[in-house]
Each structure stands twice: as structure tokens, then as C-alpha cells.
Records
---
Amino acid sequence: MIVVLAGGVGAARFLQGVVQVVPQQDITIIVNTGDDREFYGLHVSPDIDIVLYTLAGIVNETQGWGIRDDTYHTMQQLSRYGNEDWFMLGDRDLATHIHRSQLLRQGKSLSAVTDDLRTRLGLQLRVLPMSDQPVATHIQTPAGLLHFQEYMVKRHCSDEVQDVRFVGATEARPAPGVLDALKAADAILIAPSNPIVSIGSILAVPGVHDVLHEASGQVVAVSPIIGGAPIKGPADKLMRGLGMEVSAVGVTRCYRDFLDVMVIDHQDAQLVGAIEDLGIPTVVTNTIMRDSASKAALARSVLEAAGLTF
Amino acid sequence: MIVVLAGGVGAARFLQGVVQVVPQQDITIIVNTGDDREFYGLHVSPDIDIVLYTLAGIVNETQGWGIRDDTYHTMQQLSRYGNEDWFMLGDRDLATHIHRSQLLRQGKSLSAVTDDLRTRLGLQLRVLPMSDQPVATHIQTPAGLLHFQEYMVKRHCSDEVQDVRFVGATEARPAPGVLDALKAADAILIAPSNPIVSIGSILAVPGVHDVLHEASGQVVAVSPIIGGAPIKGPADKLMRGLGMEVSAVGVTRCYRDFLDVMVIDHQDAQLVGAIEDLGIPTVVTNTIMRDSASKAALARSVLEAAGLTF
């Protein structure tokens, strides 16, 4: 069994490689839900949807999120009714949020709803939200405490980052299956996702950090920072705001308590010494996922670093 | 002040004539909400929407409902998630239901939400739901008690009609302004809507029937049955099922307690005697609304029958 801790676009692309190498029924994905937010009374789970859409082959590959060839007619009309329209939700995409919200209101858990969507989209792997309870990532800025989506999407990451808070995390419990999957895993892969808001929120769910620390399977992380910057997203701004070094070394420090192997890109080969000084063996490979073959090659390297061969 | 009791398509087309003759600020429309139903956890008010879309000039004129040039991408995806798809909701139309549901969940009344939509769509007249409490029209059939939308849209009016029930009506109250508008009206026009399920549900709201009986303004109805059949919808099946005569005479009997004048089509001129035998003066005119001019002409005839000139 392989467990992957996942955020959004970077994780989904990494998973496109993993599913080429590992049978779907041997994969459990634990997904960040700290970015979840209600829009128009509908529950949106951006990272779960990115992972599901990507693995189901219906994602808008250019954006990395949303459904391919989607239209925006509902949002245009919602905007006419005076609603905010800074978070783009396509018409097909809205079906996911309508369906999810309906099931949640019927009393189903986010886990159950996610599993329903996963099945409907024809996927065999297991997709678990990090928690069934709401955990909302907020960014402390000079303009106040902003929900992560407001910080990132509405205000385009333009505010100075002073702190990051996972509101609700202390009261949240890991979703059913999360801790057991981590305990039973032959390898735990940390996708090249934002270490602060994507993986950090998963780590903030009580119990997850401790189980990772004690896990019998190897914990292997892929750095999302290559050559001093993330491929996508605001990881650099968040790390810098929190006083961290924006590099694979900084990422390693986020995970060093439980990390067994760090995987970094050839561009960062000069950082091997600094990472190994933290006590973490390091693998250098190509971590830039340009196409299907490079995604599979990265997955193979990471699994090999975890001591597994496929 | 003119008050119009309204169902869906027939009423909306009649109102397109009324607004050509009467200034919008002098019009109050009381709309049937017995057809309301939740789809995918969203509150759909078909008749309110037909009236609003039609008067705002955005209705799909061919269907009589929905928004012009709408797409169905959200529903297609909802169907992929295993949801029923017999009630067609377009993408732009869904915005109305999402917006309405959000405001209702925030604690706003259906009246307040309807007024919000009315304003957003640029209309100056007053649109009141018959009640802010749920009243659900059900049809008793050999297959059981069916919600009106199931009877009509899902099962295409194929079941034998044994009875009609307005579930919740006895506990419902008229929406704020409904009784006052009826009391203060210079004329109360009953649109050519289904007398059983569209107007009948409004009459089932406690207080409405009595106020109509005592109203100082003239009450004038337009028969939706012409030449023994409705222009649109299942009024004939419902009237027949309830043992009523499917004609302008049968419609008159539904309203005779409070009706001052009946307006019928030239095709039914031979029914004048039978209607006047019920004690109801009758006006014969062209009630078939083919175009903008014939709608305005009908409105003028009806208002004249109410003793008003514009």
C-alpha cells in the first residue's frame, strides 16, 4: 500500500505518474481540505476536485483545475444577481459542488461524499479528505486574517504574509482511514505540494504528525521548490513570510521530524549537502513533470527511494 | 392598483400585455408557489421564475420557461453523478436557484428573495409569492400521491387524476402584502392559468378566498380553456379528473364565489348563456395571445371589464 499526501495541481500531476506505476487499488491519497470554502452556499473542495478531475482525465490541463471545455454561464448569471465572481466555477464543475452540498446537507460526511464522487468518476484508488471536520487555512496579513482563497485568488497573493493559521484544526479529527492508512503504508509519499498550506494543513490535523513520525513505511517527499521558486502557486511567498528559506532545504526542514528521504531536482543538486546535514538522505532526479513519461519516471524514482520496486 | 393572480406560462404572457397598458409601479402579481420543489438541494420556484424571466425579457419564448439560449452542462454532469435529470434546469437558470437557496438558508423569506431577484432583473412591479411557507401541490393518482412536478414533468400527466391536495396549505399564511394588495386593488385580474393547480393553490392559502369575496375592486378572470382545451398544460386532465366540465363554464364555477366578470374567447361565445346563468357577466373577446399587440388588446379588454380605462 502506497499513501500519498496531496495538495492540488502539483500533487495531481505527480499522481498521474504514480497511477502509471502502482495499481490504483494499492493507492490511498490523503488530500488537503484547508482550502475548502463555501461559494453561494455550495461546498467547494478545490484540492479534492483537482485530484479527482485530473485522475479521471477530465481536468482542464491548461489551468490545472476545473473541468475541460467548461462554460461559465451560471457564474455570469450569479454575478448579475450581485454575487462575487472572483472564484471561477464552471458549469460542469458546479455540478460537483451542488452534488457534494446536497449530500453533506443530507448528513453524509465529506469522506462519504468524496468516495461517491470518486466512484462516479470511475476511479479505483482511495481518496480521503484529511478530515471530515472543517479546517480553514487562513493567512495573517497587514490587511487582517484572510481565508486562503481570498489571499490567493481574490487578492492575488499581494498581501504580506505574517502567519498561517489552520482554523478548526485543533478540534478536527483525521477522516476515517487516514491514520490506519499511514500506519499500514509500505511507503508514504509527500507530493510536490505547498509545504505550508497544502501539506502543512494535513500535518495540523491532530494525530497525523505523530503517526508519520512512527510510520513503518518510508516517508519520501518531493520538493515543490525548484531553483528557488515553486512551479506554481505561492509557496515562496508563504515560506518567505514565515522566515523560511525558499529552497528544497527549507522544504526539508518542514518535514524533517518524520522524513526518510528527500527527492530534489537536478537543478538543486548543490543543495544535497545542506539537506543531508539535516540528517535526510537525498535523491537527485528530474522532478519537472513535462509529460506522461516524465511523471511516470518521477514516480518510479520516488518509489525506489522508498525502497520499493514496481 | 391592479393585482394579478398568476401561474406560469399563461399568466406570464398575459402580464406581457398588462405591462404595456398599466405602469409597472401600479401592478402587484401574486404568484403560485405550489409547484415549488427542491432539486439537488436547490429551491426551484417555477412560476415565479417564469413570470420574472418573461417580464425581464430573458425567457426562452419557445418553451415559455427557462432562460433564452441557456445550456445544460451542469445538469449533464449532475446526471453523471447519478442524479435525476427529468426536470430541465439550464446553467443560467440554475444561478437563480443557487442564489435563492443561498438567501433562504441565510434566513431570508421567499418574499424577500423574490423581491431581490425582481430588482436584480430590473423590474419595477411587485411580485409576491402566495405564501412564504411551503405549500406543495400533490396529485392523488392510482400510482399514489405525486408531487405536481412528478405528475406533470416526470410522468408526463399520464396518471389518472383522482384528487388534488395542497400539502401545507392549512398551516400557510399569505405572504406579507398579499391580503392588503387584494383589499386595496382597483381590480383583481385572474390570469388565464390552470384554475386547479395554479390559481387553486393561491385560493387554498387561508384568508385569500375570503378577501377576494369581500374585495372592493372588480374581480375579472380570463378563461384558460378555449374550445374545450387549455392552450398549454394539463388543466383539462385535472378538471376532468375532479369531475368538472372542461370549458369556460367549468372555470367560472371554480371562481363563482367571488368573480365579478368572466372573459372568454370568441370561440366560446356560445357559452355566454351558461356562464351568465351562474350569475357572472361575461365578456367575449380574443383571448389567444399570438403577439405583443394581441396581449395588450386582451389586457385592455380585461381592464375595461373591470371598469378601468388606461
---
Amino acid sequence: MKVSVVKNILEANERIAQENRAIFDEKNLVVFNLMSSPGAGKTSLLEKTIGALKDELRMGVIEGDIQSSQDAERIAALGIPAVQINTGGACHLDGNMIRDTFKEFDFDALDLLVVENVGNLVCPAEFQVGEDFKAMILSVAEGDDKPAKYPLMFHESEILLVNKIDLLPYVDCSVEKIREEALKVNPGLTIFEISCKTGEGLGAWYDWLRDKVKARRSARKQQ
Amino acid sequence: MKVSVVKNILEANERIAQENRAIFDEKNLVVFNLMSSPGAGKTSLLEKTIGALKDELRMGVIEGDIQSSQDAERIAALGIPAVQINTGGACHLDGNMIRDTFKEFDFDALDLLVVENVGNLVCPAEFQVGEDFKAMILSVAEGDDKPAKYPLMFHESEILLVNKIDLLPYVDCSVEKIREEALKVNPGLTIFEISCKTGEGLGAWYDWLRDKVKARRSARKQQ
């Protein structure tokens, strides 16, 4: 009975996510879903990424938070269209919440839409929103045992950004162990080691993202 | 319809939690539910607390993780009865999972049972397990905007442990702001600033916990 309720919710969400995806495809819009624990650096990564790429990629951001609009305000301050979703208690974004933001955007004026999920290393990984790919952040302050303990998000993501590497001298965390354990869960994972504070490692992420968006858009055009 | 399903799940859980609580009361066992984001330091806090108090308080621990038994092994290595719950994907512990561990413990040989919840700053706060009180940890590496963005756990907790204060020189986080924002959400919150790494501030927490367990047990005896 319980399992069946969960399955129905997930199936209903999957259908809405596919509808969202069809709209993104029609508009030739690349979408990624950015997930992490609270405070791992999602909004900071977006601020840096927008600063670096906004002249090359026309970006928009959907901010998901249980409440408050601080994150959307941080993004909007950079001159980027940003819509805040307040889930009112819910621990993840779903396809329906994303669909509700569509009227706020002009998708013809965007190349890339980023969905910043609610800070939670568990539930967001279960819910598709219509994205092209998922990216996750793990802060080194969270420790190197996280891929083994919270495997689903590592399994579902195409990108793992290991953030706050400037803290490595002060915390008990091995990036080598994160890499090994994360690749055990998902051998296809692409991993970047970054510091949103110092900027270290961000260039490789910008290059990857720029290439990904261009490749995706040109593949769509050839379809 | 959706709301009604959620409500029924929460109501069923509430009933089971009350049954658990009746058993804890009968055994004169004090129980607290320890919650935080992944990697904020729940298991480290328990290791330190057990080391400091195990000659005064007979402690047992229930470890909740989606998978793996690393945390229960860390606790059992200290000579403390520890039972691992693997939720198999679920993002929080509920009353039923806790009840399933009872056969593994001799409650007559314990004064204090700690339930270490799944690492998640959102969902665990919604589910009672029969505890006397809830305690939560926020790592300073997570940032000082968390009480405003994830208010429910701050609202439900009696204790907030602000951990990893040894990292304060290296992160953009004001403990003063955490205090202010957390007290806005829950004016009754008792706050400790600690470092499980250096031991700073832990003495005050040990004193509070020792007094709480003793006061609770003597209040029960007088009933």
C-alpha cells in the first residue's frame, strides 16, 4: 500500500517531467538540475558560473527553497532571470513545480536553464524535472564517506563538483577517497575539484559546461 | 488527495511514536533524536559524548543511514550497544523503524538512547520517533543562512549544536547571525558552539546532557 502510493507519485512526476522536457527540446533549451546538501555551495557555484559565462550563454535560474527568496535575489542581482520556488515544507522540487515557473520565463531568450534544487542529499535525486542532466556538489567539509552513505544522488548525476577544496588543510577528508567511492557508485561520473571561494578548478567546469551546452544544442538542431 | 495521504502517514507515525514513548517511559529511558545535514558531525558528536559520559550514563545508539553500517561500527567500537537501521532509500527515520530495533536492546541496562537520524536537514524533523527531545547540529561550513531557509528543524529542536567552529577563520559564516536567525525561528532553543575536532565547547554540552537525563529520570520516578 505504502509502496504503491510512492510509485504513483513517482509515475505522475515522470509524466510531467517528460512534458517539461518536450517543451525544453522545442525551445532548444539545455537544462540542468543542481543538487547537494544544504550549504555545499550551489548558489555560490551559480554566481561564479554566471559571472564567467553570461556573455557566452544566455542563462536563467529556478531557485528551489523551502522558504525565503534569498537565493533568487542573489542570482537576480547578477542581471539573470531568476524565479524562486518556495516548496512550503517539501524537501525536493518536482516536475509540477518547475512547470509552474514557465510563465515567468521567455525561453526563446535563453540557452541554459539551471534548476537549483532544495538543499538535500537524498530526496531530490528521486524526482526528474525534465532536465538534460543532473549535477551535484559535495563539500569537503561533509566528509569522504558520503558516496557510500548517500549513493543515489551520485548514481543519478553526470557531474560531481567537489567544492571547498580550500578547506582541505583543515578537515579530515580525502578527495582521493571521494573519487574512488563515487566512481564505484557511478563509473561514468565526471568529477571536478573546485573552490568557489578561491576560484580554483572552476575553469575546467566552465569549459565542460560551455561545450556541453553547445554540443547539446547542435545535436538538437540536427535532429 | 495528496495532502490526505501525507496526513495519514504522519498520523499513523504519530501513533507508533506514542507507543514507543510509552515503552521508553516504562523503562525510565531518556531518548533523544539527533538530526543534521549530511556530514555536520552527528557521529563525531556521539563518539565524543560517549567518551566523556559513558562511565556516568549507560548509553545506547540507533544509527539511521540509507545504507552502510559504518556509523554503527564506529559507535560499537567504543563498547556501546549500537543498532544500524538501513532505510533503503528513505530519507528519515520513523516510529516504526525505531520500534523494529527494540528486540536488539536491553532497555533495563540503559539510561540514555540516542537516535542518530539520516543526514537530512529537512524530512527527519517531520517524524516523531517517541523521543523526549530533538537536538540538531549545524556545521559552520554550511553557512549562516540555514535557519531562515530550513526553519522546521530549528523549530522542532530543543538543542542546536553549532559545530566545526574551528573552521570559522576559513569560512564565511557568522555564529552571531546563526544565533539570531535560529532564535527568531525558535526562541526557546538552547545553543552550544562546539568543535568535535578540538573539543572546544563540548564540556557545556556534556553538563547540559548529564543534567537533562538526571532531571528527566527523577521526574519520571516522582510520577
